[in-house]
Amino acid sequence: xxxxxxxxxxxxxxxxxxxxxxxxxxxxxxxxxxxxxxxxxxxxxxxxxxxxxxxxxxxxxxxxxxxxxxxxxxxxxxxxxxxxxxxxxxxxxxxxxxxxxxxxxxxxxxxxxxxxxxxxxxxxxxxxxxxxxxxxxxxxxxxxxxxxxxxxxxxxxxxxxxxxxxxxxxxxxxxxxxxxxxxxxxxxxxxxxxxxxxxxxxxxxxxxxxxxxxxxxxxxxxxxxxxxxxxxxxxxxxxxx
Length: 241
Prior knowledge:
Strand order of the largest sheet: 4-5-6-9-8-7
Structural class: alpha+beta
Number of domains: 2
Shape: elongated
Number of helices: 7
Strand content: 25-35%
CATH class of the largest domain: Alpha Beta
Radius of gyration: 23 Å
CATH superfamily of the largest domain: Chorismate lyase-like
Helix content: 25-40%
CATH topology of the largest domain: Chorismate lyase
């Protein structure tokens, strides 16, 4: 309980108590907290005091309000340096979370003109489509669709659920990404994307278009990533000259 005789304001005591419980994992990321009224009753304080404590924790990004749903413990964002040549699985491991994947599509398709041009192949050529839903600690955060030249057709038989595709390519044929180009935009979630990423239709998502090249400068794949920006951030670091 809070100490009404302490020189520390009640709202600060409450904020410190909730922060301690978050730190000790008594309150877990994504967990819904008591309502302001319930919290006021539990601690024997006013709703105004509760709101001041909540505001402190929101400012510290430990909790967040969701309109019409309540107050929740914030989930840490996954962050990726888009200038670094790093696969999703490697990024997750470095962040201390478990990567995962579920295959959505693996088949031969006809390349459209833009994909063919980026892969430096003839228009309407057949290419290998590998599409997966990517997870971080069992939470869906990214949809990826990658198009490979036909010489990588062996990927159609690969077991890529919960495995790194880049690691598999390197082990299978020695192919690896040496450089890449990326364009980052915003898009709105379609019905299918919203269902896969557990967001609402129309929510803003990050849309990344990329072309990866091997050590010989040949296109390895053309891909898109559709990312839940609430759970994932991209950053670029550039040093001074």
